[in-house]
Amino acid sequence: MLLRFPIFPPYFPLQRYLRSTSSSYSQVPLGFGSSALSLWADQKSGGPIRCSVSQVHSYGTVDPERPPALKWSSLARRISAMENPSLGCAAVLERWEEEERRLHKWELCRVVKELRKFRRFKLALEVCDWMTAQGDRFMFTSSDMAIQLDLIAKAHGISRAEEHFSQLPDTLKDKRTYGALLNVYGRAKMKEKAEAIVEVMRNKGYLTEALIFNVMMTLYMNVGEHEQVSKIINEMKENNISFDIYSYNIWITNCATMGDAEEMERVVGLMSSDNGINANWTPYTTLATMYIRLGNFEKAQSCLKDAEIRVMGRDRTPFNYLIGLYGSIGKREEVYRIWNWYKSSFPRILNVGYQCMLSSLIRLGDVDGAEMIYEEWLSMTSSYDPRICNILLGLYAREGLASKAKNALDKFLEKGGKPRPIMWETLAEGYIKEEQISEALSYMREAVSYEGVNNWRPKPKNIENLLALCKGQNDISSINMLMDMLRMRGCHEKEEYKSLISAYCQGN
């Protein structure tokens, strides 16, 4: 979606390091502390240039007696919903073994993967620590070590991950664990440390696959050093490193970010002629985004058609981007066509799907359609995302339809939705536009009084407009109330508010 999503791709996890198809993987019993078990996990992708290549997850050596009728999902749910988190995962695992049966490594690794999927990194790490505490019961590979290195960084920070890596025996410091540490640095945009790790890997002969180069290209893009991406591309060519789909996607994205449409078309052509690449939809949506920025909607639509024929599997993501991009080029009928295709492909639409559809219809000026989608979302969902409600509130506020905004918010609250400060502020914005001071102050107070979001502050423009409205009506008491609200949120200490407060003080 052109206006809502960044052009930069996500971090590309080094999941190829997790494969255990070779007997050369280091296997050792763990006996060097509870933080030594390693189960590195790939990061969930996100963002517009995301490669929907099938991902194979492996967790090292699997017990030879693989259990029938696996119940790992029940165990994962029990861990996620444990009543007393202070007892930790150890209590749940021990109770499981007492009541059910002895756990196998394969099951535990699958539980770790599931916890990571829902970003429960600390719980996943606790499962790893429990496995470590079992002494020689489990055998682990360097892939396992890489997984936990990633988990430690996410749960406890980079310094702990570095300490963990330094304590690994040399037999487990291979391209997998080095690669995991590199990915940690890459996500944190720690360029110097990432470059140092790459140099070590180069000296050890580990730079034999595209994955390391992909991580570095993404890092350079994210820190704005786009010329470095070209240098890495050249290094890959000089060393006969085969490009994978991630490599091409990053390369294409870098061209788009630099505004080089001609080079981007050339790279797409190279990718299409590469027999080793089965291109997915993402390069074509990137190309479409570039054409939209250049105002060439005809070429953009052609690229979207190319993207459509590459949509397959059970990935919802391409539908979200197709809806957003068709909306950006004003193709209302295409937006509805993709939406109907989307709904026929999945038993239910997730919140992000409704968010994309609602945003696109509002961009197209289809208010009736947007209201219909909002009502459908309210009737279908059990997870009331305040961001979706706020999209409709924003439309009403901009149009000066405060009463309609209030009705939409009331329905959201009646369904059990939990409002956020920005929703109250959006409603206040509508009343400012209608020049209703008391209502605007009332909802601004609701926003300011919210205790769940400490870093929220009202938009300076809304404060400026409300102050101007109060001054125009010579409503000094309302100005004083507004100043009290700003002090409650610590706004008087922020530069962007100081000029507003100063102007008020000088005028009084």
UniProtKB/TrEMBL annotation:
Example of a GO MF term: mRNA binding
Membrane-spanning parts: none
Superkingdom field: Eukaryota
UniProt keyword Repeat present: yes
A cellular-component GO term for this protein: mitochondrion
PPR repeats: 174-208, 385-419
Repeat as UniProt keyword: yes
UniProt xrefs under Gene3D superfamilies: Tetratricopeptide repeat domain (1.25.40.10)
Keyword list, A-Z: Repeat
Family statement drawn from the similarity comment of this UniProt entry: Belongs to the PPR family. P subfamily.
Protein name: Pentatricopeptide repeat-containing protein At1g02150
